[in-house]
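Note to self: user wants both folds in one dump. Writing first protein now.
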Amino acid sequence: MKMFKFALINFKGSVKSCVSLVISLSVTIAVIYDFIAIIYSNNLTILGERNRDFVEMLVNAALFILGCFMFFFIWYATDTFLTRRKREMGIYIFMGLTNQKIGELYAIEAVLTGALSLIVGLSAGVALKELFQMILFALAETEIDISFEYRLMPVAKTVIIFSAVYLIFMLKGYLSILKSSILDLLSSSRQNEYVQQSGAVLIIKALLGIAVLSAGYYWSVDPDPYAILGVTVLVVAGTYMLFGGFIPVVFQTLAKNKRFLYQKQRCLWINSVIFRMRKNYRTYAIVCVLAVCAAAVLATGFAMKSRYVRITSSHNTYTFQILSLESTLDNELTQVIENVCDIAVKSQNSILEVSERAAVVSYSEVQRLARSTGLEFSLAEPSDSETIQLSHEVLLSMVLEDWGNIMIGEREYKITDVLRTPYLGLFHTYVEFYVVNDAEYERLVTQHYGNLYYLYNYLLANPKADFAAADTALNEFKSKNKDNYYIGKIASNPNDDEDEWMRFIYSICCVMFLVFILASGAIMFMKLSNDAYEEKGRYLTMKKLGLDEGKLALSIKKELATAYILPFGVMSVSAFFAVNALGKMMYEKLWGIYGISVLVVFIIFAACYAVSVRAYVRNVG
């Protein structure tokens, strides 16, 4: 019989056993294809050249992350698939096949599996491309007419990326078979991820894991943006050692407690959990880290969306802001604007420039500005030695708030609070304002500690329709008058959509969240399905000994529930600290997002658990 025909027969017979691998690879391929298709889509042209460039940059960044994820995911999936088949391949040696022939057989089967995954994944990706883009644009709150177009370049790139990664690990498996002995092949299923360790080593690893993970948590409570990488390394390493040391020690201690062990038939599954934990701790650690990354990605997306909304709101507080040395321009400027359109809100205030990037304003004037614009302002008036800093919103900052003191003139003021509410509109972007009480402001002005300017603020009743006409009228007014009438003008064009690309950060983060969560569930499902084949003999033996099938099924449910609950529990704690650190860095309250992400992870894990139980029961016979 020719090797290809033999491999084809084997492949047909093992389709059911590798369906989880095919589905997992297909989903990864479909997501990669849909992201690549966005870049080659004409749907982005409506966003404008600047937004298109930024969106392409975001998509390419997401593709890089997905590419790295696909590399490690295929590595894990193909290793799991090879481990399951090695025992069967060991039997082929007794049929007279050499390692080289067995390697060829594996390579052909791997090619067939990869080709099937590629066909299914590309078909799903092409079929769902428009739906994927509709969801992406809907999450970004961007109205667009999706065009149905199909290009060969996204298909070609997806095939090249997947084939290059898949062939690397197929070749790795082929070389592994060539170097394997009969004993290695026959016993490989009981060697995977298992390292025999003494109790002392486990205790040391447990204590070290708790210390390292606690250090990562402690560091994240008051995060230094430039130490985020260090925190990440500590949490990942601590999680790895927690599953490799602490949790096995806890279960081994419980197993030694006979009173605990023999109640409610725990002996049927506790020892199995101990063995699985010692055997599969790397898998559980990977799943936990992926789930934490998913929660952090979702929190990042929501934080970015909230920040974008605030930035847009601050830009639209006023349509025009005029800076002048004159204190009596309000009537003239109002008339110029009202000659072409209506004004919804107008206000005037003075500012004292104390440096190139800092100015002082009085408490009562800021309070009045807040009332005129409807913005919240509930802080008490600062004392003579205190000030409130008014800063601006930024999309992402790697500098944490550091309230301290500031020197204005000969006096040092304590900063009691930092507000990012745009009381002075777009001027917050260029100048840091410091609010002092009225008496202190008058003292600073009287003693000439800076240059005194007057700011005129106008919000049009219909900014989108009237912006161009009002802008032209103000420019003509300036050209007809002397310079000190009109030192500077800041205009917020409501028709400017140059920042629309920011919305896609949120939508891409949502997609990445689902990818990571589904991947973690798929890894758990594949691993537990593989374990079921190893346990088939043990469960059949217990059935022959007369153990009730219902009790055996209940034992399986408890064992698998433990396998899912442990990564979920550790993930929930780690995600709490990760989201807390992210919220402090981005000045956002993300506890609601943390709750949502944990709930979604729970739902997906629960669904994977239900499927895993059915597959496990079926596979053990």
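First done. Writing the second protein, which came from a different request thread.
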Amino acid sequence: MRNATIVAPQPEAVEAGAEILERGGNAIDAALACAFVQGVVDPQMAGIGGFGSMHVYMPKKGVHEILEFYARAPLKAAPDMWLDKIKHQSRDGFGYVLEGNISDIGYLAVCTPGSLKGYETALRDYGTFEWTDLIKPAIRLARNGFMIRNHMHWYWAKDQANDGFANTIDKLRFSATGRKTYFDADGVLKNVGDLLVNSDMAQTLERIARSGGSDIFYHGDLAEQIADDFKANGGLIDREDLARYELSKVKPVWGDYRGNLIATSPPPGSGFPMLELLHIMEQFDVGSLQHGSAEHIRILFEAMKRMTIDKDAHMGDPAYVDVPYERLLSKEHAQAHAHAIKAGEVTSVSRLDGSQRDTTHISVIDKDGNAVAMTHTLGSPSGAITDGLGFMYNGTMSRFNPVPGKPGSIAPGKRRPSSAAPTIVFKGDEPSIVIGAPGGSYIAPAVAQCLMNMIDFDMSVLEAVSAPRIVGVSNTIDICNRIRHSVEDELRTQGYQVARSPQTYAFAAVHAIKIEGGVSKGAADPQRDGMAISVA
């Protein structure tokens, strides 16, 4: 490798990671510095109150695995705890709306966080830098402040009433810390360009840095503060949840697409649905289609619906349910789906009757060929912030199915199905693409489309992440605002429901690196505020 590259949705975080690379750190060191900063400068998307997974490839050490630090349901949770509170499922299938939004906002919404233990484990097992050194940029930005960016403010102010979930602005108001941090003295939400200072978070990060690891969060002083706060506010998480938290390491699942070997996250991650979509699309001559044409979109939509049906039927925590992803990834299964699409069969996605989601991503490759694709998140923010700690907890309980007996149903200590699909593509023995995205149910379709853009349409990495996208995770084709209106009209004539997004760049936010001839180039999805930096 002749250079190193890092790409993520937040400029401040990318800069922190790039500085680590310039100082001789490896891809894992850079990803962790970036991740800590993301928790400060995009605090509703990620942070130490969240969770995620890191796809790690280190050829010289013979390491290729997924470090899973997913959130776990409270040990006091029960499968039927909210059976009488169900209203409906979101149209994109990402979450479940309950009466009073009790699983979406407040202390009952929170699952046991895994991010800090994930960061510590990654540094210990793969990294080279000191713990305190990696946290310093995040502490500095929390203490001194940073400018509020466009995407952050858009997300804060976004009206989610159509989904039925609580609006983020109400979550920002939920705690005393939130009201102090995110609003002016007159109660008006801070605006783009305003300085956001979070001294409480700076002090918490300093405590974590001095402690030398994550024990303070799961067994020490922070654990006591967290447990006491949840008890006082009717939450389910207690000291036992924190003390018994465990992460895991697993091998990636593999697929292939037109001779490219693709490694990605196994269940409960959504790498396998992304691979299933690619395997279906491989049965079509995608490159001969006009990109964004009605026929291209029709085939994509029908393939995405079939992927979604399989995911909804089977996805869950493999420690609790059998997920037959080997069968779903077989070429025979893909061929059967493709045959139905070619025959003109229209399938239907069912939802429980009665978007854009809250995650971030990092892609990195260093000069030694070490690669990281890391997706971490709050799932959605809960609004809950322990007084004096500064960080917001995840709101992941709303992502469990409140109906017992389903693959994604609630169970004590269970990990909910994740939409993350951190992915590395290989040509022969060498990585050729490092890719992933935030965006909930839209991640797998968006990542697959960007891979097809590079492989089938021979796009550059920037063209691939910027090209118009669609999603088909319901019975409506969601199209971005750069799909031609004539194409929309043609699809409607064919009998399809079509929803046009007002966004120019929509449906997940893919951040990718493409490697050719030993040179890596990165691209940040224009939907968000990020950037790519290459280091010679």
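Dump finished. Worth passing along: The chain has a mean pLDDT of 95.
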